[in-house]
Amino acid sequence: MKLMFKIKPLLKTAETAKEREAIEKEMEETKDLLDKEKKRRQEVEEAQVALIQEKNDLVLQLSAVCLPLQQCSRWL
Fold this sequence. Notes:
rod-shaped; mainly alpha; single chain
């Protein structure tokens, strides 16, 4: 009976250690996933900025072309 009282806490400690290792592994995987998602988000935000700038440039080009055409149509 005394042996059982000595072994049972050791078994519980080993079980707790396995659970802790599993949680730490899951935490590392989640951290890696978070880092990947942050990197991807930054790439997407940079692409968005580039697209907005390109859109603005195209709007300026279009307005530069349309303005003279509107003036010409007034003369006709």
